[in-house]
């Protein structure tokens, strides 16, 4: 009976998030039909629609359980499935120096973006979200990072909304930048892969420059996406250590720590340090890299991950008080702008150092 009662409790919120996510995905498909590609991704539309619904109609208590389940558990499942779409083997063709340079640019961008956010007065978690979104893969990185650092729904919505808007504007500007600076297809592909937030936006930005730019841009973008695993692992470890230090009871660590002090424990198991979905993400990535996941399995998992992520974003939108987002908006968009400028400068620097023609 408990299971049925639990399902009954979740149904209203799940139904609402499902409807909003479907509308968002239809909106994305409509853009593809009209323009050839979506300028605003479905997950961004889901956030906007969810927030608009909450702001206009409110959210009765009966929806809370299902909305919270969608925003947390469904998102975590989506992150695990995302790992199946990433193969480390693809890096072999990129070149050692270029891969190292991309990793360096991402790490530098993370540090600079986070520092900018904090200097502008953004809360710690919001600064981390903006930094990860700017440096790695935009909305997907924000969505994956949020549960690791236990970010508030308002912070997630603010960072995704303004990062997405800035990303679209940047994609529109990039082709003019290539013409103004006389960049070759290779240079432009690397630059776009290093700076554009989302994979579909990389395709949109590089398509006017030809197939070479598109292929290189996608590969560079893949390397950035691969940084998501190490980054969220590092954030997860840091968050758990801080939580244990501040409140050991809440993390179930007292017994283990007492055992260590008494000489009866040799350390903490990995399951205590990393959230389950991070372990699942890395496991899926490893299976994909070893060719143990055939395309017949990977492609449906990619689609399911995208669907679940959009649904989770709808739930996050339903959890947001739009007034709080607007209050944080000015600082967030300014931090995102400065971070993008710094990322672009780092990308130009890498092209110069590697002497890519």
TrEMBL record:
What's its membrane topology? Multi-pass membrane protein
Q: Which residues cross the membrane?
A: 39-57, 69-88, 94-114, 126-144, 156-177, 189-213, 219-239, 273-293, 299-320, 332-356
**Sorted alphabetically, which InterPro entries does this protein's record hold?**
UPF0324_pro
Any idea which UniProt keywords this protein has?
A: Cell membrane, Membrane, Transmembrane, Transmembrane helix
Q: Where in the cell is it found?
A: Cell membrane
Question: Quick one: where is this thing mainly located?
Answer: membrane
The family assignment reads:
Belongs to the UPF0324 family.
Q: State the name under which the record lists this protein.
A: Membrane protein
Which organism does this record belong to? Thalassospira profundimaris
């Amino acid at each position: 009976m408990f299971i049925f009662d639990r399902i009954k409790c979740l149904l209203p919120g799940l139904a609402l998030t499902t409807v909003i996510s479907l509308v968002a995905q239809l909106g994305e498909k409509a853009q593809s039909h009209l323009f050839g590609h979506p300028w605003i991704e479905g997950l961004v539309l889901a956030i906007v629609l969810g927030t608009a619904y909450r702001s206009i109609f409110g959210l009765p208590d009966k929806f809370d359980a299902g909305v919270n389940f969608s925003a947390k558990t469904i998102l975590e499942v989506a992150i695990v499935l995302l790992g199946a779409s990433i193969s480390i083997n693809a890096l072999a063709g990129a070149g050692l120096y270029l891969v190292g340079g991309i990793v360096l640019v991402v790490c530098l961008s993370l540090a600079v973006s986070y520092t900018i956010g904090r200097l502008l007065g953004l809360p710690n978690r919001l600064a981390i979200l903006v930094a990860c979104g700017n440096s790695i893969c935009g909305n997907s990185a924000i969505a994956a990072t949020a549960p690791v650092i236990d970010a508030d729904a308002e912070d997630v919505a603010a960072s995704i909304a303004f990062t997405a808007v800035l990303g679209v504007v940047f994609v529109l500007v990039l082709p003019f930048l290539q013409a103004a600076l006389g960049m070759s297809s290779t240079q432009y592909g690397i630059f776009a892969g290093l700076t554009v937030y989302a994979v579909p936006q990389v395709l949109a930005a590089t398509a006017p420059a030809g197939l070479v730019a598109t292929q290189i841009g996608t590969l560079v973008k893949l390397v950035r996406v691969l940084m998501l695993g190490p980054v969220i692992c590092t954030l997860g470890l840091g968050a758990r250590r801080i939580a244990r230090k501040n409140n050991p009871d809440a993390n179930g660590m007292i017994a283990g720590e007492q055992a260590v002090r008494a000489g009866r424990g040799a350390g903490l198991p990995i399951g205590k340090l990393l959230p389950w979905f991070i372990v699942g993400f890395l496991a899926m990535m490893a299976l994909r890299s070893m060719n143990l996941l055939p395309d017949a399995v990977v492609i449906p998992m990619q689609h399911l991950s995208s669907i679940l992520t959009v649904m989770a974003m709808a739930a996050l939108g339903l959890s947001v008080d739009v007034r709080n987002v607007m209050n944080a908006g000015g600082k967030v968009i300014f931090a995102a702008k400065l971070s993008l400028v710094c990322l672009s400068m780092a990308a130009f620097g890498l092209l110069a150092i590697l002497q890519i023609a």
